[in-house]
Amino acid sequence: xxxxxxxxxxxxxxxxxxxAPATEEVLTRSVPSTAxxxxxxxxxxxxxxxxxxxxxxxxxxxxxxxxGRLSGLSISxxxxxxxxxxxxxHFKLYPFRPLLAAVSAKQVDAAISSITVSADRATRxxxxxxxxxxxxxxAVPAKREADWKAVLAAAISWHVLDLLFGALVLLTAVxxxxxxIERRHNRTTFGGDEANGIGKGIWWSAQTMTSVxxxxxxxxxxxxxxxxxxxxxxxxxxxxxxxxxxxTALTINQLQGPxxxxxxxxxxxxxxxxxxxxxxxLANRGIRPKLFIGVQPALAALKSGKLDAVVYDEPxxxxxxxxxxxxxxxxxxxxxxxxxxAVAIPLDSPFRSQINMALLEFTQSPRWxxxxxxxxxxxxx
Length: 381
What we know:
Low-confidence stretches: 1-6, 8-48
Oligomer: single chain
Strand content: 5-15%
Distance between the termini: 85 Å
Number of helices: 14
Mean pLDDT: 79
Order of helices and strands: HEEEHEHEHEEHHHHHEHEHEHEEEHH
CATH superfamily of the largest domain: Periplasmic binding protein-like II
CATH topology of the largest domain: D-Maltodextrin-Binding Protein, domain 2
CATH architecture of the largest domain: 3-Layer(aba) Sandwich
């Protein structure tokens, strides 16, 4: 009896020992299984997960050091999100357009940089809640070099042509009035047919306004002389005003350049970044810009005089100018279109809600405000 019991115990023990390794193998495989990719690990320290996050260099949001280390406002934000969710991150660098393609093809778990939310992109990928609000801006030279082309362009501008037309109308009106007054009593000077008489009146009006006074055309009636006195006084004011307006028009054009508003972009050489929302903005306005692969080459073309303006995201323009073109270029104080930066996520990603919760919590904290000031300066957010 005792022998049978002993044999039974041995059989049961052997069976349990054989079953145990099979159970442990199932648990080990379940951790990296794609079926559990949607859930946050219950204990991240025991079961660390690595997410592949695409990015592209876009200072000050993504900055690469000489040894390849990444930093910047967007990188700091993502590291906080990953830490909160218990994930490790493998960053993968792309050019900008291939980065968006990688998100659309679900080759990365997420992408972060200075990626703007747009209706077109939203058909190919999801976005988190925005973490930064900015806008498209215009960079122009800080001051323009004087050249004959710029002076000529200013001299034949509509403003100057309006001034010239106004002066001509005033000269004609005063000269015609003088002819009407003098034609019957001063036939020697203002006689003849109407064309000759009015022509003499305009000639007198022009030389009187400019204080030349050749003396070949002189009014002889009392009314004509009173008109002459009045026109002498008004002529000084008119000439001074015309000269001041013309000088102002030329000076402003030289100091400010040809681009002062968004409407001026239609008539100048514009550059922007290929594949950006600024390219789409310009295309919608019928403007065909010269395309560049990065903001620094575009600003270098602006500096060399190959462009009159660069349209791109305001914080990226300001950062690049401060770092590489200080005192040579500036950003106009106007925004063409509002921009919202967000984390790009593949469609139907299980991470979207988790990312949003961590992102919203962090971007409302004092630490985030400090990071914005650190990378963008006071008032950068």
